[in-house]
Amino acid sequence: MKIGIGLPSQVRDVDATVIPAWAAKAEEAGFSSLGTVGRIAYPALLDTVALAAAAGATRTIGLLSTVMLAPVWPATLLAKELAGIQAVSGGRLTFGVGVGGRPDDFVVEGTSTKGLGKRMDAALDAYRDLWSGKPVGGGDNAGVPGGSVDVPMLFGGFAPAALRRMARFGEGYIAGALPAPQVVPVFDAAREAWRTEGRDGEPRLVAIAYFALGDPDRGRANAHHYYSVAGPDFANLVSSGVNTTADALRTTVAAFTDIGADELVFHPTTDDLTDVTRLADLVL
Q1: Which of 104, 1, 90, 26 is nearest to 268 (CA)?
Q2: What are the Luciferase-like domain coordinates in residue numbering (predicted)?
Q3: What is the CATH number of the domain that holds 252?
Q4: How many domains does the chain have?
């Protein structure tokens, strides 16, 4: 199982200047990828900004959104930004995508939480049109240089429709911030959807977890605040599951290895740059 690390882009009131240094240090340490989690209505960074900054600061490490809430964006504009990140990174981006549903994130005029499934399907069509080089805006010009661009997609979400989209259009599935035993049924459902669609091989299965080593109390508080919009029960579940010790981290790695995850991304809950080295020393 590969081990990735998140960027602290979702940390409340993050010091944004740390992002390039964090990315470079993670690449040097040997992590498989740099992940992002993001919301619009939160005092942190957009996924696209963090991924672009990380792309410019690194050369080999993968870039992965886990997951980006696609329907809060105008689809063609998001497709264009992702194509640009893919270009400047030399093809290292994987687009992890989900539907979302928090009303305060839908700030663009004409978007709301209504009809998310249909809008997600329309967005996927718009992404494929732009990435394949079709003309944009009613004129003759393509939206990407070189004719086309490939942006692999992973899908998150628990609804059957999300799993069907994953099996039809994606390379695999990203689980939510849940303990390994609770991820087992969704991984199994992803595998079943993959087989039902007649896809060869197996879907790429990615899990996420949270960690804070330098300041565990602050890390747990940040995680709780971030997920409080989902209600106290879920906020307590995530914050209590933040990995703050060597034993906890190793147990988490073993648990996700045992359930067949292909990659586990540890997202930070503080922006303490020294946590990159601390985590690497314990899990790589």
Answers
A1: 26
A2: 15-238
A3: 3.20.20.30
A4: 1
**Residue tagged 């740059």 (tokens):** 273
Structural domain for 31, as ranges: 2-283
Q: Is the pTM of this model over 0.85?
A: yes
The whole-number pLDDT of residue 102 equals: 80
Percent of the chain at pLDDT > 90 equals 86
* Cα-Cα end-to-end distance for the chain: 11
Residue 81 in tokens: 């930004």
* DSSP sequence for 96-127: EEE----GGG--STT--STTHHHHHHHHHHHH
Contact 126, 144 (CB under 8 A): no
**How far is the C-alpha of 283 from the C-alpha of 254, rounded, in Å?**
10
Both tokens assigned to 188: 């199994």
- The single-letter code of the amino acid at 113 is T
The predicted-structure confidence for 88-140, as pLDDT tens digits, reads as follows: 999 999 999 998 878 888 888 777 778 888 989 999 999 999 999 999 988 89
How many Cα atoms occupy the beta-carbon half-sphere of 90 within 13 Å? 9
Reported as a single tens digit per residue, the pLDDT across 167-209 is: 999 999 999 999 999 999 999 999 999 999 999 999 999 999 9
